[in-house]
């Protein structure tokens, strides 16, 4: 399945001369502000990050003058080799693992819950508008605030421990329970959103297909796996891709729910943020960011090229 | 037990799942500081103590709310102005490289924020932008722009092509057709996109956290996450929950008023 920008067949020019002659120039004029902004705010920083990743700040004392020097020194691949084999390797590889496990586990749970929610909401029922508003609430709550909210829920003498049997769990300290707390908070915030997207996908499936399946004697389970799932797959795949990319750059939740500097929940973004903002080490921070960027690009590539996620909406109706 | 009944039970479970944590934030914010660890479903007695604490002078929370409005508002206006014209071209005009432009715009939305943040931080330190509004607004515009373009393109695509043709027959240039015919009709789509963009900008955290360290310029989510109690050992959960409710309320009101449109906007790009 071709998914990225298939070449469209040349359209025959309309007969009237000059009818579309101004279009190309006009289009360029209209699109250029967007490209300019994205160039300045996205493309330039990315290139700049790649450059910074090869430098380290040198804050040494100049031996001749005795003055404090500040400057960036080119260090080649040092920042990258440090990341994988040097002193900071353990922290970085741990953060990379956290980033990956958060993504795999949270997105899987969110997809299952989201599909379940969509199936439940699919048929018309009374109070549908209300339910739709309810489902948008977790999406609308700022993620940083959601982190604080769940930090409160997961306090040692908080409501989560009140509801659970057994000894109180110290959720927000560190360890597997902190990791789980982040997964739960993320699932709460985004599973309903996936449900919403899947629901939209369900609603474009014609009822006739279901009728036909029923007449052929297909049960609900068979219908789900043979009709519903294949037909919502394009929608679901795009939703999953964007959720995966979002989770790979996760920062707000671990930062406000657990706090930085915890082995169980530090993600690559948290690590890079700490290096850059707290310690002013732009070189290593950029190197982290570049590795994360490459990771994200690889995942996006796999989704778009190998799994056929139709991100760009270029597939034309035919299926 | 009928299927219908199971369905309603399931739907009740969804509503509970979505609202219970938010409800807990609301209930906790309305307790007295002394009752904050109560686990009853209602605050008894009801108290606005936490809200008074949140707005206490030293916190700068009111100013932070204003900052959030300025940053999210200006971001939304700028992003919409730039995105509307681009989306019109992408949806309605035929030109070479259109798919490439679309792909580029979507691709930029996939970049992790941290790869933008570190170089921008270095740049902003260099040009004296640390502790300014523009240091928060400019990156935010870039971050919400792909979303805005994508949403608006989907809206413009839904409009019948006869509109411009009629306008052109009546003597409008393509630019005139856009201004006089398309833009007024697309107003609902632009409005919906504005809401979604505003929510995204309002919720932005990592950039606002990094480029500003003066209390007067912090946004509401940032300042809420940094509240300290009367002593540094005291976690001010009541105050944080009250502030959290205040930060979230504008968004919940938007969601309640415009849920149908927001859902249409969010799903427009995803479903063909």
From TrEMBL, chain A:
Keyword entries, A-Z: Cell membrane, Membrane, Sugar transport, Transmembrane, Transmembrane helix, Transport
Q: How does it sit in the membrane?
A: Multi-pass membrane protein
Keyword hit for Transmembrane: yes
Q: Where in the cell is it found?
A: Cell membrane
Location of the ABC transmembrane type-1 domain: 96-303
One of the GO BP terms on file: transmembrane transport
Region Disordered: start-end pairs: 1-20
Q: Which residues cross the membrane?
A: 26-47, 101-121, 133-153, 178-202, 223-245, 287-308
The protein's superkingdom reads: Bacteria
Question: PROSITE patterns in the record, alphabetically?
Answer: ABC_TM1 (PS50928)
Q: GO CC: one term?
A: plasma membrane
Q: Does the keyword Cell membrane apply?
A: yes
Chief location of this protein?
membrane
Q: Which family does it belong to?
A: Belongs to the binding-protein-dependent transport system permease family.
Q: What is this protein called?
A: Multiple sugar transport system permease protein
Lineage, please? Bacteria, Bacillati, Actinomycetota, Actinomycetes, Pseudonocardiales
TrEMBL record, chain B:
Q: Which family does it belong to?
A: Belongs to the binding-protein-dependent transport system permease family.
How the protein sits in the membrane? Multi-pass membrane protein
Task: Give an example GO biological process.
Answer: transmembrane transport
Q: From what superkingdom does this record's organism come?
A: Bacteria
Q: Which residues cross the membrane?
A: 7-26, 69-91, 100-121, 133-156, 177-202, 237-258
- Give the protein name, as stated in the record: Multiple sugar transport system permease protein
Give the UniProt keywords, A-Z: Cell membrane, Membrane, Sugar transport, Transmembrane, Transmembrane helix, Transport
Any one Pfam family match given in the protein's UniProt record, by short name: BPD_transp_1
Predominant place of localization: membrane
InterPro entries recorded:
BP-dep_ABC_trans_perm, MetI-like, MetI-like_sf
Residues forming the ABC transmembrane type-1 domain are 65-258
To which species is this protein native? Answer: Actinokineospora terrae
Query: Per the record, GO CC terms?
Result: plasma membrane
């Amino acid at each position: 399945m071709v998914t990225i920008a298939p070449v469209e067949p040349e359209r025959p020019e309309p007969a009237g001369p000059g009818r579309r002659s101004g279009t190309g120039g006009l289009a360029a004029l209209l699109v250029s502000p967007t490209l300019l902004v994205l160039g300045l705010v996205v493309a330039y920083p990315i290139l700049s990050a790649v450059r910074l990743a090869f430098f380290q700040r040198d804050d040494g004392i100049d031996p001749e003058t005795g003055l404090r020097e500040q400057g960036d020194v080119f260090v080649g691949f040092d920042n990258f080799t440090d990341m994988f084999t040097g002193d900071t390797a353990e922290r970085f590889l741990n953060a990379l693992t956290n980033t990956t496990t958060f993504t795999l586990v949270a997105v899987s749970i969110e997809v299952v819950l989201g599909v379940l929610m969509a199936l439940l909401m699919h048929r018309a029922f009374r109070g549908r508008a209300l339910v739709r508003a309810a489902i948008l609430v977790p999406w609308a709550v700022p993620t940083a605030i959601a982190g604080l909210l769940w930090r409160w829920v997961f306090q040692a003498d908080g409501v989560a421990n009140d509801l659970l049997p057994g000894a109180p769990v110290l959720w927000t300290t560190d360890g597997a329970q902190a990791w789980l707390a982040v997964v739960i908070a993320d699932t709460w915030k985004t599973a309903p959103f996936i449900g919403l997207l899947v629901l939209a996908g369900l609603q474009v499936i014609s009822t006739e297909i279901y009728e036909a399946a029923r007449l052929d004697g297909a049960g609900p389970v068979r219908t789900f796996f043979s009709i519903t799932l294949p037909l919502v797959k394009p929608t679901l795949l795009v939703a999953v891709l964007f959720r995966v990319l979002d989770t790979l750059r996760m920062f707000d939740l671990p930062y406000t729910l657990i706090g930085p500097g915890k082995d169980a929940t530090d993600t690559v973004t948290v690590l890079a943020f700490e290096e850059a903002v707290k310690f002013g080490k732009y070189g290593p921070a950029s190197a982290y960011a570049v590795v994360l960027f490459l990771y994200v690009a690889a995942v996006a590539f796999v989704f778009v090229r190998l799994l056929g996620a139709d991100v760009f909406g270029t597939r034309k109706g035919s299926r | 037990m009928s299927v219908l009944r199971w369905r309603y039970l399931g739907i009740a479970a969804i509503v509970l799942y979505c609202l219970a944590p938010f409800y807990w934030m609301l209930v906790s914010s309305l307790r007295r500081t002394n009752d904050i660890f109560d686990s009853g479903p209602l605050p008894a007695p009801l108290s606005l103590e936490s809200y008074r604490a949140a707005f206490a002078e030293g916190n700068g929370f009111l100013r932070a709310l204003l900052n959030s409005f300025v940053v999210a508002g200006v971001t939304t206006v700028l992003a919409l102005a730039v995105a509307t014209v681009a989306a019109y071209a992408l949806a309605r005009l035929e030109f070479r490289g259109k798919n490439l432009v679309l792909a580029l715009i979507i691709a930029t939305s996939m970049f992790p924020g941290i790869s933008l943040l570190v170089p921008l931080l270095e740049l902003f330190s260099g040009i004296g932008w640390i502790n300014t509004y523009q240091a928060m607004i400019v990156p935010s515009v870039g971050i919400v722009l792909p979303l805005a373009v994508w949403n608006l393109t989907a809206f413009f695509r839904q409009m019948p092509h006869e509109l411009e043709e009629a306008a052109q027959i009546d003597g409008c240039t393509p630019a005139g057709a856009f201004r006089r015919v398309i833009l007024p009709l697309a107003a609902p789509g632009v409005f919906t996109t504005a809401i979604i963009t505003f929510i995204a900008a309002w919720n932005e955290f990592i950039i606002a956290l990094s480029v500003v360290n003066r209390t007067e310029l912090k946004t509401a989510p940032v300042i809420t996450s940094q509240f300290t109690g009367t002593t540094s050992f005291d976690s001010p959960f009541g105050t944080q929950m009250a502030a959290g409710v205040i930060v979230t309320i504008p968004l919940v009101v938007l969601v309640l008023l415009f849920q149908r449109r927001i859902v249409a906007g969010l799903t427009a790009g995803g479903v063909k």
